[in-house]
Amino acid sequence: MMNYELMTTQNAPVKMWTKGVPVEDDARQQLINTAKMPFIFKHIAVMPDVHLGERIDHR
């Protein structure tokens, strides 16, 4: 049993330990964009305090 939500992307998967915590749509999009970066190894790990990062835009 997984204790995280798995968000699949076209690139690296995103493992989100955010059960019961709302995640902003903009933060989700930023995670998808970050997963496209060539230096992401196996996955991105997201903790319950996830939020949109300021001054970061990978679009």
Automatic annotation (TrEMBL):
Keywords recorded for this protein, A-Z: Ligase
EC number(s) recorded for this UniProt protein: 6.5.1.-
Superkingdom to which the source organism belongs: Bacteria
Example GO biological process: RNA repair
GO MF entry, a single one: DNA ligase activity
EC class name: ligase
Transmembrane segments: none
Name of this chain's protein: RtcB protein
Record organism: Salmonella enterica I
Chain's gene name: rtcB_1
